[in-house]
Amino acid sequence: MGETSERGTPSLPRYVAIADTLAARWSSLVPNSLVDSETQIAASFDINRQTAREVLKELERRNLVRRIVGRGTFTALKLAYPIERGRPPRFRRVVAEAGYSHEIVLASVRWQRETSSRPRTLISERLVAVEGLVAAFATDVFVEPIGAEVVDAVRSGASIFETLQELGARPWRRRATVSTGQPDRSVAARLGYATGPPLTWNLRSETINAATGEALHHSDTWIRSDVFDVGITLDFPPDEPAAAPGQG
To answer: In the chain, which residues have pLDDT < 50?
Structure first.
């Protein structure tokens, strides 16, 4: 007989109870470890394949595992992606510091025509993979004249930050907005989600030239939550001291 303690309750479906058990069991495994298949889970817990499938879907929803067609199910990478004062988000640095390799797959580079209210704009879309697994989809926007200066480097997949530095700019990530949501179907498909995607990190940022204040680059990036664990640290200045009696 297989394990039978994860029976569930009227308020807790059995597949959720089993997912809880496996989440605890697999928490000590190193990232990207191969774990049990549907067939193995079904045999271990004496359940049918459909319930085993729901167990793995539940673990996917929690961003604890990643299922890859033809390869199996693996524990999530969950690379730490800190965003804090003095440390603006930089994808390449995060991956390198974690000891992993990345690859940029260029999806498209196109120009958007000039209008009466907007200069000509270079738009690139990139898929980024970590250890061969799709990890993020980024849309980058450059207005003229900077677009014409970076187009070749962007097309080759070079680092945007380093390219801007080589052009003599002082790139400064002036603003970054981080949220979670569900990308549209087109982006979800590029990120490798076969069904409705779980909550996914969305990072929007604006980069300017610190020397001139000129806008250089806007980015809108969707980041798989099973690959990166984004952590945001905010520093708050102390409150203004209260005015002394008679001085307010």
So the answer is: 1-4
Yes or no: say if 196 and 176 are a contact pair by the CB < 8 Å rule. no
Total residues belonging to the chain = 248
Burial of 89 from C-beta contacts in 10 A (0-12 / 13-18 / 19+): buried
What is the distance between the alpha carbons of residues 94 and 100, in angstroms, rounded to a whole number? 9
Cis peptide bond upstream of 238, omega within 30: no
Whole-angstrom Cα distance, residue 208 to residue 248? Answer: 40
Tokens standing for 53?
């499938």
Three-state DSSP class for 180? strand
The residue type found at 140 is D
- Cα 46 to Cα 4: distance, rounded to the nearest angstrom: 7
pLDDT for 138 = 95
Specify the pLDDT at position 93. Answer: 85
pLDDT in tens, 78-104: 998 888 776 767 888 889 888 888 898
pLDDT tens-place string over residues 136-182: 999 999 988 899 999 999 988 888 989 999 999 999 888 889 999 99
- Separation between Cα atoms, residue 202 and residue 129, nearest integer Å: 16
Q: Helices (H) and strands (E) in the chain — how many of each?
A: 7, 10
**Calpha distance 178→69 (Å, rounded):** 30
Judge whether 218 and 174 are in contact, CB under 8 Å: no
Structure tokens that stand for 136 in this block: 């993020």
Question: Which residues have C-beta within 8 Å of that of residue 30, sequence separation ≥ 6?
Answer: 75
Give pTM, 2 decimals: 0.82
Q: What are the φ/ψ torsions at residue 183 (nearest 5 degrees)?
A: -65, 160
- Contact of 38 with 49, CB cutoff 8 Å: yes
